[in-house]
Amino acid sequence: MGRLEAIWVKRARRGVMDAVPEAELLVGHGLAGSPRHGSRRQVTVIEQELWNTVISEMGTELDPSARRANLMVSGVPLRESRGGLLIVGECAIEIRGETRPCERMDEALPGLQETLRSDWRGGVFGGVLVGGSVHVGDPVELRARA
Questions:
Q1: 66 and 51 in contact (C-beta within 8 Å)?
Q2: Cys bridge to 92: 35, 56, 58, 130, which one at CB 3.0-4.6 A?
Q3: pLDDT above 70: percentage of residues in the chain
Q4: Shortest CA distance to 8 belongs to which of 70, 100, 68?
Q5: What digits encode the pLDDT tens for the residues 115-128?
Q6: Three-state helix/strand/coil letters over the chain
């Protein structure tokens, strides 16, 4: 069983990522307050362990909010998880694919975009199938889709 380690809400497209202790996941829309409502990429998720590995390999420190994901989980490997269900507390996110890091990563740290490209290090994106409140510390698990 994994754990929800962090939640970030983006104020606007390309906007600041605000860390919050809890948030609302809306079915078919994504994170309440986030500008990505209704798209295929409603929620983005990164793995704490992979983030720590990437930053260690780069020999630096950087807050994980620089990755610009909505959720950070630990204890749940997301590699090759397309089609799976990520259960966060009582919510469910359908994993729709691997998140490809954009040029914004190099604005945060030169070379970060390339370092995140391999082995699903950039995280995953998905759609909210079961909504509700999520809180830092909630249990997280990855299930195969039935």
A1: no
A2: 130
A3: 88
A4: 70
A5: 778 788 888 999 99
A6: CEEEEEEEEECCCCCCEEECCEEEEECCCEECCCCCCCCCCCEEEEEHHHHHHHHHHHCCCCCHHHHCCCEEEECCCCCCCCCCEEEECCEEEEEEEECCCCCHHHHHCCCHHHHHCCCCCCCEEEEEEECEEEECCCEEEEECCC
- Supply 33's token pair: 């307050």
Q: For residue 116, how many other CB atoms are within 10 A of its CB?
A: 22
CA dihedral 13, 121, 90, 15 (to 10 degrees): -10
Residue showing tokens 């909505």:
70
Query: 116 is written with which tokens?
Result: 């995140």
pTM (predicted TM-score):
0.89
Fold of the domain built from segment(s) 2-143: M1 Pyruvate Kinase; Domain 3 (2.40.33)
CB 55 within 8 A of CB 112: no
Question: Which pair of structure tokens corresponds to residue 124?
Answer: 């995953």
**pLDDT tops 90 at residue 101:** no
